[in-house]
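Checklist before submission:
- one chain only
- standard amino acids only
- sequence pasted in full

Submission:
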Amino acid sequence: MDTRQFRNALGRFATGVAVITAKGPEEAPIGMTMSSFNAVSLDPPLVLFSVDRRANSLPAILAAEGYAVNVLGQDQQPLSDRFARAGIDKWAGVTHRLGHAEAPLLEGAIAHFECAPHAVHEAGDHVIVVARVLRFAACDEAPLIFFGGRYRGLAGTANTP
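Returned file contents:
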């Protein structure tokens, strides 16, 4: 199977964009952008996200006592880009408050899900993290959309930073 073509085909499924955050080692916060966030169950309230095994933050995510899923709004592409990069100070100038297990809740996110670990599953080159939602909040704003390898607006036009 051609992995590039497979990835391109998967990119035909539009997704929202979230930043998963947690308290990392030695109290330092961690965060990573992802579009692999999904609802699993309403009773109990469960969500999942998947993390590439090569991600620098994977050990900290697996060791965390809790996570926050921060769903980004259409004007937060720069924040998405920031948390998608490795090797930079992702938190410089980022306004947030602490949620469950001291996981950062990003200011301006259109939804927050404060979660506790529930299960971890091996899945090829990724690890699937299932989390139990303890608290959540949402507002009625437009989401940041990722489709075909680019950020988009709801009408299909590309967002600009």
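Reviewer check: Helices lie at 3-10, 58-63, 77-84.
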